[in-house]
Specification:
The complex is a heterodimer of chains A (141) and B (110). Chain A is an alpha+beta fold. Chain A is built from five helices and five strands; from the N terminus they run E-H-H-E-E-H-H-H-E-E. Classes of the chains: A alpha+beta (141), B alpha/beta (110).
Chain lengths: 141, 110
């Protein structure tokens, strides 16, 4: 693979049954190319958590992925309410997810901490009332 | 042990067979219903014991590469989840026993 592969996904904000589709496809692409299993797993978990966040909190959004030989770069963009306190949201166990989401097994307050755990770089740019852009980078070691 | 051995040993109901139950190896086990928690801690090859039978459970099983989902205490598995499990070849099993009993026996066998 000499050139980077670019992928784009639109995430539907209302459809919980489709949440996870984009991360599943990204995982498959990485597998087909033959990336190391650890990189595939880490990327898939981080993107899945972020994808679920788009559905739960932001009414959907977009995912752009760049797969290069040395790294995987993911940008998640939404026009949701923004994150009021990023520091608090990064703490394990803190969650603002509604009860119906918790009943599905989410809302444990593990999403952002998991994303940080499974990526090498994680950056959140958020503006209240306008939306959030999350940038993730995973290096192929 | 293989998933097939697990099915026989525990007399499990097979909800979604996948394609690989005969060969697929169960190398460990994990109990949990909070999906993010499971996703970051369950290991490849684990038998995942849970009561959570929705489409997102299948997503977690795929991402974490667990050997199978084992629904405990006859918990429900909805139609959307079954479709997703079939599409992704996820093996889904069910027992009337609770996670404590099943995990105890599984730990002895592994």
């Amino acid at each position: 693979m000499s050139e980077a592969i670019k992928l784009h996904y639109d995430v539907d904000g209302k459809d919980f049954t489709r949440a996870g589709e984009a991360s599943g496809k990204i995982k498959k692409t990485l597998k087909d190319i033959g990336y190391p299993p650890e990189i595939i797993r880490n990327t898939a978990i981080a993107v899945y958590e972020a994808e679920i966040n788009l559905v739960i909190h932001a009414g959907g959004g977009e995912i752009d992925v760049e797969i290069a030989p040395e790294y995987v770069h993911v940008v998640l963009t939404d026009h949701g309410p923004g994150i009021e306190n990023v520091e608090l949201a990064m703490q394990e166990g803190y969650s603002t997810a509604p009860d119906q989401v918790r009943a599905l097994g989410f809302g444990a307050g593990m999403g952002l901490p998991n994303i940080k755990k499974y990526t090498d770089e994680m950056k959140i740019d958020t503006v209240l009332g306008e939306g959030t852009v999350m940038t993730l980078k995973i290096y192929v070691k | 042990m293989t998933v097939k051995n697990l099915i026989d040993e525990f007399s499990l109901e097979v909800i979604c067979h996948g394609e690989l139950a005969e060969e697929k190896q169960v190398t460990g086990g994990y109990c949990g219903d909070l999906l993010s928690w499971v996703m970051s801690r369950a290991k490849e090859g684990d038998c995942w014991l849970t009561v959570m039978g929705n489409v997102n459970s299948v997503g977690v099983a795929v991402l974490a590469d667990v050997a199978c989902i084992l629904l405990t205490e006859n918990s429900a598995f909805d139609d959307d989840a079954l479709r997703r499990a079939e599409q992704n070849n996820v093996i889904v099993l069910r027992s009337d026993k609770n996670a404590f009993e099943l995990a105890g026996k599984l730990a002895d066998l592994l």
